[in-house]
Amino acid sequence: LSILGKYGEKAVDWSIMILGCGAHIGYVLVVGDLGSSLITCWGCHSYMCTETSVIVITTVLFISPTCLMRHYGHFAWLSVFSIFSILLVLFLVLIAGPLKGENSGEIKIFDAFGTMRSLGSILFSLSCTPANFQAYLSTEKSSQNSKSWARITGAAIIIGSIMCAAMGITGYLSFKDKTEGEILDNFSQQP
Q: What is the tens place of the pLDDT at every residue in 27-62?
């Protein structure tokens, strides 16, 4: 930010804000779709359990309030819950994937069509990168140096990459070409 000056800092803030709006809409759609599916599986079939209702309720009560917080430090409790949820999904894929998966199907090392189908998920997973600027500014002053930041981001990238690779490889080896973009869809019970 010091290289770009005052206008560069403003440009970064605006780009993060625009990207944040897109991510917010993405989260709203994902939470609404998955939340509605989950509630419907639990037996609720009223209008309040439809995708539209779940989107409105979760946006007003949960997503918008957390997105309006000024400092990332306020998300510490949410981060712990998020990592715990991701670990549960990872263990589900690692343990139940091989049990539920099929042995039939060809293993492909590279599939251009599959890559294009997953491009949205790939781009969505990379959308957090610009937020590093804001996260850096919201950390404690003692951590706002190159050495601390390299250690923090390096650990996050390594751990996140290992988790994603383990989930992706296990999911693909379990379900082959029937692997869904949302891995949990492979575990849904068919009526």
A: 777 777 778 887 887 888 888 888 888 888 888 887
pTM to 2 decimal places: 0.59
Angle at 131 between CA 55 and CA 23, to 5 degrees: 20
Distance of CA 156 to the CA centre of its chain: 14
Rg (CA), the chain: 20
**pLDDT, tens digit (0-9, with 9 covering 90-100), for 101-154:** 776 677 778 778 777 766 766 666 666 666 676 677 777 788 888 888 888 888
Burial class of residue 173, CB neighbours in 10 A (0-12, 13-18, 19+): middle
Closest to 152 (Cα-Cα) out of 166, 167, 132, 134 = 132
Cβ atoms of residues 72 and 136 within 8 Å: no
Q: Whole-angstrom Cα distance, residue 64 to residue 38? A: 21
63 near 27, Cβ under 8 Å?
yes
- Asked if 56 and 36 touch (Cβ cutoff 8 Å), the reply is no
Kindly report the three-state secondary structure assignment for every residue of 10-34: HHHHHHHHHHHHHHHHHHHHHHHHH
Amino acid at 31: V
CA–CA separation, 175 vs 187, rounded Å?
Answer: 10
